[in-house]
Amino acid sequence: MPARHPSGGPRVSTDPERAAAALIAGSLVALPTETVYGLAAVASDRTAVARVFEVKRRPADHPLIVHVDSLASARQWVLAFPEPAAALARRYWPGPLTLVLPRAPWVPDEVTGGQPTVALRVPDHPLTARVLELVGEGLAGPCGVVAPSANAFGRVSPTSAADVMASLGGRLGPADLILDGGDCRVGLESTIVDASGGELRVLRPGAVLVDSATGQPGDGEVAVLPRVPGSHSAHYAPAAEVVIASGEELLAASASPIPEDLGTGLLAPVGIETPVGWIRLASPTDDVEFAAVLYRGLRAADDAGLHRIVVVPPTTGGLLPAILDRLRRAAR
Ligand code: AMP
Ligand code: MG
To answer: Which domains does the chain have, with CATH numbers?
Structure first.
């Protein structure tokens, strides 16, 4: 028997067949992916999709990413799949890349937020790949599930089944399910590339590094990254205050310690020392490990009741744009 939440909340299982059956029956399933856990519903099931919005308290005009099992399935959701986008799909799918394309006329407005485009991705996780395959076999018509991050809107995305339970366990019912596929490998949301116009445009940086001008793999999206910090709406935010600091700023702060500096957590690359009285949340060795532990660290700070999280981002690496993007939003 799968484990059950004590309050009668969702079941937890490692069985993709159970997960697919729950989705086909119209329930919600938290699915593991290589990026973060998604709260999935069959994309053509309007009632189930409406529940995703309700459970997450997500604004209705916020479009959802449709997760499919293959490029062939993705083609069924679009009017056109321009060659530059298809080349990216062939190269990076399955993987942490979402493509925004002109939608097929039948795609529900609930999925696209009423936009003329649809966002598509083939996630890279063996359990979820199997779920998508089974859902495709079990349902008539184009297969796909919407799967926004399985957390309350605006909060930190979950990177483990336990995170999902902590975030949404109280809002899901006994027919819903959390598919436990372990810790997410990447730990940050997918790169989103808008391929609906003439040229490619990066809407959100992630682990797939695409040069928006050429569509070729690049060394980051630094050119599109610098934004007015205040223009970032609060997102990916823990309850604790997030402060972004450089290694030098941290040194200066620890040189003149604040006496009653209780409740501060530090997430910083290995080699940066923890000021006296602060709680070390993680010591990643590079940008890839930093991305993988970032959300876990933010959650751990909230769990420990800390009121401030100082984050020293790494200074190099291809994941830097994605890490800085999420940190600036978390810091509001
Ligand atoms: P997530 O919050 O990770 O589920 O990602 C959803 C994000 O994908 C949205 O906030 C948009 O930025 C982007 N997105 C999804 N669908 C579309 C679409 N049809 N057109 C443009 N952007 C989209
Ligand atoms: Mg999200």
So the answer is: 3-191 (3.90.870.10), 241-330 (3.40.50.11030)
